[in-house]
Amino acid sequence: MKIGIPYEDNVYENRVSITPYAVNVLRRQNHQVFVTVDAGLKSGFSNDEYKKNGATIVQSNFDLYNNSELIVKVNPPESQELNYLKEGHTIMAFFNFITNPTLVEVLSKKKITAISYELISKDGLFPIVDSMSRIAGKLSFSIGSELLSKPNSGKGVLLGGSPSASRSKIVIIGAGTAGKELIKLGIQTGSRVSVFDTDITKLNNMNHEFPSIETFYPYHNLLISQLKNADLVLGATSAYKKKVKKMISNEMLKMMEPRSVFIDLTTPCGGISESSRMTDLGKPTYLHNDIYHYCVPNIAASVPKTASNALSTNILPFLILITEGYMDKSQGLMDAISINKGKVDEYLQNKNGDPQSRVAIPY
After folding, report:
1. Average pLDDT, the chain
2. Which residues contact 211 (CB under 8 A, 6 or more apart)?
3. pLDDT band at residue 349, thresholds of 50, 70 and 90?
4. φ, ψ for residue 51 (rounded to 5)?
């Protein structure tokens, strides 16, 4: 099969979907791999590394799309790339179609097969999304720490606190992968941690693994009481194939201490706060009701080498299934096909039932 790894045109996307190590695996299986010049440069992978592992370097994304059958991306295709797509192409990416209906129309009209990373599952887990969620959870702690510091006009609180000083408070909405990583770091530094989720089984499991945390069903009054004294709030819920529910109102934000920090990983699904709006790594934060908001969806792109290695490792097994003709044998892959030769997945037409809560999908 002819596989293409394009340069990500989004100026704030530093990752590459497939590393040179994975290219080597694909070449050993006799697949052709095309890589747009400098596609891996921002992640620390040179053109020479790709060449040494068997890739053919092409000079533009136009050439890459022209030569490839299967396109493996990170972000959804940019407007120019949509012009390069033609009937018969298969493309993999973090599509987040629920907040991008126009892209659905374009790809379906072109009769493209689109495979969404955020929907690829195995044994009930979402390995590609989880790999980015782990990084996002860890980054949330360091980002929160930085924004809370006085030099960054924060409230001057150290996450974890210090002897003879009150402990900091972290509130996590969503007991998924990202939330779990933040819990670990919060506990290690001595922070008080509260976790909200609608899935009682998840809460019980979290409580069993981390006995020092508090877990709650997100009753309105309980959420307000916890937000009032929170230093860092993490939004890490999502709904399966649907927009997330708005759980934090502007009025609730006004009850929080000024210059507290709210990190929302759910903006690809619409955001859990009325105040959430997507930002980027160029200008990641804004103040709303005197609360710092950090709403970068591709948060893992700030550590591109780590993220690209994780992404590539988790994409590769599914990529091999596709290239070897076993896609229809993997239910996890079949469920992730949102558009196929003009046929649009039912969820894009909002015909499915009640959404199921799972981890957030920072891509």
Report:
1. 91
2. none
3. low
4. -60, -45
R_g of the chain, CA atoms, integer Å: 21
Distance CA 162, CA 249 (A): 32
The label of the residue with tokens 């105040």 reads 275
Of 339, 276, 363, 333, the closest CA to residue 103 belongs to 339
Please give the DSSP secondary-structure letter assigned to residue 242: B
pTM, entire model? 0.91
**What would the pLDDT profile of 268-309 be if each residue is shown by its tens digit?**
888 999 999 999 999 999 999 999 999 999 999 999 999 999
Residue bearing tokens 């530093």 = 14
**Element at 294 (helix H, strand E):** strand 291-294
Angle, nearest 10°, between helix axes 20-28 and 304-323? Answer: 20
Give the chain's largest Cα–Cα span.
66
Q: Please, which pLDDT band fits residue 173 given cuts at 50, 70 and 90?
A: very high
C-beta separation of 144 from 265 below 8 A: no
CB 251 within 8 A of CB 225: no
Do the beta carbons of residue 205 and residue 177 sit within 8 Å? no
Q: What are 24's two structure tokens?
A: 């080597």
Q: Tell me the CA distances in angstroms from 295 to 231, 265, 273, one per residue in order.
A: 17, 6, 11
The number of angstroms, rounded, from the C-alpha of 198 to the middle of its chain's C-alpha atoms is 21
The tens digit of pLDDT for each residue in 192-218 reads: 999 999 999 999 999 999 999 999 999
Pair of tokens at residue 15: 């990752």
Tell how far CA 207 is from the center of its chain: 25
> 127-148 and 177-188 are packed helices; what angle lies between their axes, rounded to 10 degrees?
40
Q: Among 236, 250, 182, 239, which Cα is nearest to 210's?
A: 182
Residues whose CB falls within 8 Å of the CB of residue 262, separated by 6 or more in sequence, listed in order: 233, 235, 248, 253, 273, 275, 291, 292, 293, 294
DSSP 347: G
